[in-house]
Each structure stands twice: as structure tokens, then as C-alpha cells.
Amino acid sequence: LYEIKPAVPYTEADLNWRDKHSRSSIETNDAFCRPALADTGADFSGYEVIFLGFPVWWYSIPAIIRSFVEAYDFSGKVIVPFATSGSSGMGRSSRDIQRLCPGAKVQPGKLLNGQHADGELMAWMGKY
Question: With a threshold of 0.85, does the pTM exceed it?
């Protein structure tokens, strides 16, 4: 388990997606935005499958996730995205991760809003 953390933590105001001047809105509207990570010391060398969780921001991955996937070499890995969203599905998340990780095999992913039975989650995870 590895927690992706920005060097500058997000505040509640930063995450106010209704404010077009909030940090999340500005980062989302800038395709080149790559917020600094708190650390880049994760070691994925012993793993073939990486489950990557995040909230969906405007039908895709947040800028901090772009920073994360570009900070590591995921060549030869399987990336399984999973997410939460208040108003949409996975959108283009998997496609955007694939574009940023050309050497990886990115799966369609799963939206995990609400309650899910342990057996359902284990069966989904077991596919990979």
C-alpha cells in the first residue's frame, strides 16, 4: 500500500470544483500541470499488478496522479485503476493513464462509489 501525497497538501478550498479559481480547477484545466509529489521513493519492482486509486476529476485523473505515473517506470506492469466520483463514471481515466504509461497495460478500471460486498471486490481484484 502506497499513499500518493502532494508536496503541498490540498485544502478544502483547493478541492472546491465549483470555484473556477480553485487549485483543482486550475490544475485540471492545465494539461501540463504536474504538482510536486511529497516523495518519489516507492519501489514497485516486486509487483506485476498495480491497483491505482483516485477521485475522478472532470472525467479523468487528477493532476497529482499525472505527476505520480510519470515519476515511475511502469513498463511491463498491469495498472488497474479504481476511483470514486460524485457525478460521473471513469470517463477517460484509463485512456489517459495509458497515454502517460505507454509501456504498461492499463485495464478499464472500476468505479467504487457506495457499498460493495467483500466477495464482489475480491472477485474483481482476483481477475488480475
Answer: yes
Residues 34/67, Cβ–Cβ less than 8 Å: yes
Report the distance separating Cα 62 and Cα 67, nearest Å: 9
Structure confidence by residue, pLDDT tens digits, 27-43: 999 999 999 999 999 99
Rounded-to-integer distance, Cα 86 and Cα 88, Å: 6
Nearest alpha carbon to residue 100 among 128, 74, 127: 74
For residues 84 and 114, is the Cβ–Cβ distance under 8 A?
no
DSSP annotation of 104: S
State whether residue 95 is helix, strand or coil.
Answer: helix
